Amino acid sequence: IQQLFNLSDEQMEFQLLDRLSFQRFAGLRDSSQIPDRTTIWTFKERLIKAGASESVFETVNRQLARHGYIARGGQMIDASIVQAPKQSLNKEEKSLVVEQNAMPADWSPPKRRQKDLDARWTKKHGKSYFGYKLSVNADKRC
């Protein structure tokens, strides 16, 4: 799934938590079984070191093809930006929020509720946006 949807380890963890279809595909019965990003990274590294990553990917592709799905043919892709209100953070807050993914301890509860710590700056067609990337990738069924 991660390779087909071009997801980072962090995005893979989020999508497994968010999408039941990804959980079913991976054979996970509930959210307590979902690996975190570090476990995902470690698993991929072990596959690469063992020289098994290519054969695993080919096996999954064969199974998908057997069920009528071709991961590289007839793809429909949509990438949208969902904008969020811009955040005004000082350097210390920005360092804590962006680099350490933490919230400053001195923020009051009302201030905490108004801050969106998950939104990030990105560019699309040379224009800067603050918000979320929303990507959809659908394959043609044979």
TrEMBL record:
Coiled coil: none annotated. Residues 1-46 form the Transposase InsH N-terminal domain. Pfam families: DUF772. It comes from the Bacteria. PANTHER family: TRANSPOSASE INSH FOR INSERTION SEQUENCE ELEMENT IS5A-RELATED (PTHR35604). This is IS5/IS1182 family transposase.
